[in-house]
Specification:
The complex is a heterodimer of chains A (about 900) and B (about 80). Chain A is mainly α. Helix content of chain A is about 65%, strand content about 5%. Among the domains of chain A are: about 45 residues, no CATH class; about 180 residues, no CATH class; about 130 residues, no CATH class; about 270 residues, no CATH class. By secondary structure, chain B is mainly α. Chain B has one domain. Chain B has three helices and no strands. In chain B, helix 1 packs across helix 2. The chains are: A mainly alpha (about 900), B mainly alpha (about 80). The interface between A and B is large, with 55 and 47 residues.
């Protein structure tokens, strides 16, 4: 060891001596000292660094040198020479530390040279010298800025012009943009090494393609805009021709890139085509806007491509495209999101061809609300904002002005008949107010877009209809204008809650106004009351007076009825009753007239009262309602008439019983007794029926009507419904229900028919009673005549009592009664009539009874409580045995 | 060690050493290391004796720099 260190120190001495320069004229002592200092320094440095810093490997040192030589010299000559020398060196066994010497030489080699160019592959050299790592650091900032946020930005922005919803592009969409960028840069720094490695690998495995990727890249922006270019021509509208010389992977990449191009092509021709409706036009505009932002993306892309192509180094492998940062693959990634947008739009444009108006909105809304992909949802939402604009304009006009401005029939409300609107100005004299309300507008269920619920659509429909009705039906356009000025608001897609409150508000205002108009201006409620009083015979004194004054007239045939007499009698009845205090507005609408005549009718059958309803009110009291009223009136009038007839006959009988009807014949007085019994039965029946209809049916239904129409928030539709229900209740419970069909044939046993039969029986019974009465009177006269003859034979006294119905005769009657016994023997011709009459009366009475039993049997099994009650009232003491119809039919 | 053999050996070793130094010198010129034959042989012998090549390289570089400086200083002084 000592010899070795000696040798080292002597080597150091000689080295120092060799390297130190002799300075001529220098002081020898100074030179000595300088040499000494240098020697100390060398010893110190060498002594401190014992042991090799790197693993000894001859090949490694030679590799380093070779590389250095290749880098510094463009020609491979020197490297070759070095290889030769190196092999020679290896063959010489003298030196053991060959690698150390080589490494020493390597370290001493020329320092002036620059750091190696950018793309040395540091991954291949595991040398961890400071110098190598310094190279690494200097390499990093120069590396191509592939996929930095600068290029990313237009990608994100391209399809989000409003920035409505920024979708997570990379991981962590929630994070703030800057933070995201930072994270990205950090990860990019890590990735860079990997990318550089990949680039190198790609460069090694690269196959030359024709046309080169750079050419394809140059053409790409044109293709993306749907324009033909040298390498990628559009052979027709929907086909892109790819160069056949390309390898399959490139073709597949181009296929992916062709998709947005073709979609753009199709969409741009779609937005050129004229839309057939406002919504379709707005859809085209919205798609056009999206296409513009797509073009913006293409422009950015083109800028990037240009930049990359300009900085290309032709000498690099693959035309240096790997380093430029823009490749076909990267373009595919960049256009991916845009492609999805285009795909969705072309889907919508295809579907929209068969759809219209609200359905179109429903279609897009379907994408935004029920599509699983949040990107599709957000995209459709954005489209929807533009597309729905005309729809909301229409909606606004409709709910604030009551006008339908829908030239292409896209709204969910449509006008029924275009002619109806045309003569709406003179609609008043057409009397078509009900059609204005019911038929002018129609709600198209399938046109209601899914952004609006059915309930809501119904409301909107009602608002517009009411406004329209107020304007045209009620002639109150001034209010409508003021209202639309005050309340009109801009409606827009998005804020459904506010929209709903606005519409609710509009709904309430409009409905309140309409009801107010109906009640105050058009006296709807007064009219309803008048209808009940006059047509439904609520005003008893008026009806009694009318009937009394008309009875003599109406007994005559229908042809002999004259309108002026009828109206005169009506006037008389009004003046004579409490009706005179009613308002003239109501009274002038009351009219009496004859119905259609048919042969053999008498006045009773044809007479009718009428209450005239005009324009806005006939929305509630419709044509149908009028008919129902008339029907009820006729029925009631008939009952009233029968009652009148029966009671007048009853009166005659009662007064007659004290005079002319008194006879000593057992048979006759028996017949009279029976007749009176049956008459009383009938009067009871009629009385109960009338009571039932007037009080149980009409009054109770009226009460229901009153409560329902005075409710808060009652709309015109509610009014109409309540009134219809009221009329239905009356006609149904009032035994006037429509003919039911049983097993295909019309049932002739409805209450209407049965009651008609019974009433007819009553009238004929009354006729028979009248016949009996006149027979009795003539019998009485005959007997009196016989008396007179007897008396003239005896006393020659004259009797002037030929007229029967004078009080004198009635008073005289009983006086003569004891004398009338011989008359039975005398009058042979007259008693012939009596049995006939008696028989007829008996038959009619029996028939009536059986009919009533049938009716009661039917009533007993009615589902309606009130109708069962009628049966009980009529048969409170079980006089009748109710018969079920079924029993009767089996009995037959 | 017998003298005759060692003499022969020595001659062979010297020839080989000269060869080695030739090769290294050529390499050093290739690498522009700026070393003359004698300095190179001294350095090789030092390395053969276990001196760290890296440290030696820095020492050589340092000494050369110093030498250049002294020459420059001297020249400026003499002028």
């Amino acid at each position: 060891m000592s010899s070795r260190s000696q040798r080292v120190s002597s080597g150091i001495d000689s080295l120092v001596r060799r390297l130190l320069v002799d300075i001529p004229g220098e002081d020898p002592a100074d030179a000595e000292e300088r040499e000494h200092n240098a020697r100390d320094f060398v010893r110190e440095v060498l002594g401190h660094s014992k042991g090799p810093a790197v693993v000894a490997d001859v090949n490694q040192a030679s590799d380093l040198i070779k590389k250095r030589l290749i880098q510094t010299n463009p020609s491979p000559e020197k490297a070759l020479r070095f290889t030769n020398l190196y092999s020679r060196l290896l063959s010489i066994p003298v030196i053991t530390q060959k690698w150390a010497v080589l490494y020493f030489l390597y370290q001493l080699s020329d320092q002036q040279q620059k750091s190696p160019p950018v793309l040395t592959s540091p991954f291949k050299s595991p040398v961890k010298t400071g110098r190598a790592s310094r190279n690494m650091e200097s390499f990093i900032p120069q590396s191509p800025d592939y996929g930095s946020s600068r290029e990313e930005k237009p990608m994100v922005e391209a399809f989000a012009p409003d920035g409505v919803k920024r979708l997570p592009m990379r991981e962590g969409g929630q994070r703030d943009r800057r933070e995201e960028d930072r994270a990205f840069v950090k990860s990019a720094a890590i990735q860079r090494e990997g990318v550089a490695r990949k680039t190198a690998l790609l460069a090694e495995n690269y196959v030359e393609i024709d046309p080169p990727e750079t050419a394809l890249l140059r053409d790409l922006p044109f293709t993306l805009q749907g324009l033909s270019s040298t390498h990628l021509p559009f052979s027709s509208d929907a086909t892109l021709k790819l160069p056949p010389t390309l390898p399959i992977p490139i073709i597949s990449i181009l296929h992916t890139l062709a998709e947005p191009s073709l979609l753009y092509h199709g969409l741009s021709s779609f937005i050129q085509s004229p839309g057939s409706g406002l919504l379709e036009q707005s859809l085209r505009a919205a798609i056009g806007g999206e296409l513009r932002s797509y073009l913006g993306l293409v422009a950015t892309l083109e800028g990037q491509i240009r930049l990359a192509l300009a900085s290309l180094d032709e000498k690099e492998p693959r035309g240096g495209i790997g380093k430029a940062g823009v490749t076909l693959k990267r373009c595919v990634v960049w256009t991916r999101e845009a492609t999805m947008g285009l795909r969705l739009m072309s889907l919508i444009s295809e579907e929209s061809k068969s759809k219209k108006g609200g359905q179109l909105i429903s279609l897009i809304h379907g994408f935004s609300s029920s599509h699983g992909d949040p990107m599709v949802g957000a995209f459709a939402e954005r489209l929807l904002v533009h597309v729905t604009r005309p729809f909301y304009d229409m909606l606004r006009q409709w709910i604030y002005d009551g006008e339908l401005s829908d030239p292409y029939h896209e709204f969910f409300v449509s006008e029924q008949d275009p002619n109806a609107i045309h003569d709406n100005q003179d609609g008043r004299n057409r009397g078509g107010a009900s059609s204005v309300w019911e038929d002018k507008y129609k709600l198209n269920e399938d046109m209601v877009p899914s952004i609006i619920t059915q309930d809501f659509a119904q409301k909107v429909f009602l608002i517009g209809k009411s406004l329209n009705f107020i304007r045209y039906g009620c002639g109150d356009s001034q209010w409508v204008e003021e209202y639309s000025k005050a309340a009109s608001k801009e409606l827009r897609y998005g804020d459904t809650a506010t929209l709903e409150t606005w519409i609710d508000e509009a709904y309430k205002t409009t409905m309140a106004r309409l009801i107010h108009l109906m009640a105050e201006k058009f006296h709807l409620f007064e009219h309803l009351k008048a209808l009940k009083n006059y047509i439904l015979l609520g005003q008893g004194d008026f009806i009694a007076l009318l009937m009394e004054s008309l009875s003599s007239n109406l007994d005559r045939p229908a042809g002999a009825q004259y309108r002026h007499t009828l109206t005169a009698q009506l006037e008389h009845a009004i003046r004579g009753s409490n009706a005179q205090y009613d308002s003239p507005e109501v009274l002038r609408r009351l009219d009496a007239r004859m119905l259609q005549l048919s042969h053999g009718d008498i006045g009773w059958d044809c007479f009718t009262l009428e209450y005239k309803i005009d324009a806005p009110v006939d929305v509630v009291v419709t044509e149908w309602g009028n008919r129902q009223y008339l029907k009820v009136f006729n029925f009631l009038w008939r009952i009233k008439r029968v009652e009148f007839a029966l009671t007048s006959t009853w009166r005659k009988c009662m007064t007659g019983a004290r005079g002319v009807l008194q006879g000593e014949d057992e048979n006759v007085s028996q017949a009279w007794k029976l007749t009176r019994g049956v008459l009383a039965e009938m009067i009871h029946f009629i009385g109960q029926l009338q009571y039932y209809i007037l009080f149980e049916v009409i009054e109770s239904s009226w009460d229901e009507l009153q409560t329902s129409i005075h409710k808060d928030g009652c709309t015109l539709d509610d009014l109409i419904k309540a009134h219809t229900k009221y009329l239905n209740a009356i006609t149904h419970k009032g035994l006037l229900g429509a003919k039911k069909k049983i097993r295909g044939e019309i049932d002739d046993n409805t209450f209407m028919v049965q009651l008609g039969e019974i009433l007819r029986l009553m009238l004929s019974y009354r006729d028979a009673v009248d016949g009996l009465y006149s027979w009795a009177v003539s019998d009485f006269t005959r007997r009196q005549g016989a008396d007179v003859r007897n008396e003239t034979q005896g006393r020659r006294e004259d009797d002037d009592g030929l007229l029967i119905n004078t009080p004198a005769t009635t008073r005289r009657g009983p006086r003569h009664l004891p004398d009338s016994t011989p008359a039975t023997i005398a009058g042979d011709s007259i008693p012939d009539e009596f049995p006939v009459l008696q028989e007829r009366l008996q038959a009619l009475g029996a028939h009536f009874k059986s009919r009533v039993c049938l009716l009661l049997g039917d009533l007993q099994y009615q589902p309606d409580v009130d109708m069962r009650f009628l049966g009980v009232v009529m048969n409170f003491n079980d006089v009748y045995q109710p018969v079920r119809k079924k029993l009767k039919t089996t009995g037959k | 060690m017998p003298d005759g053999e060692s003499k022969q050996d020595k001659q062979a070793t010297q020839a080989q050493a000269r060869q080695v130094i030739d090769v290294f010198h050529e390499i050093s010129t290739l690498l522009n290391a700026d070393l003359d034959r004698q300095t190179l042989s001294i350095c090789i012998s030092l390395i053969e004796n276990g001196v760290n090549p890296e440290a030696l390289a820095s020492v050589v570089r340092e000494l050369k720099r110093e030498g250049d400086e002294t020459i420059k200083v001297h020249e400026s002084r003499s002028q």
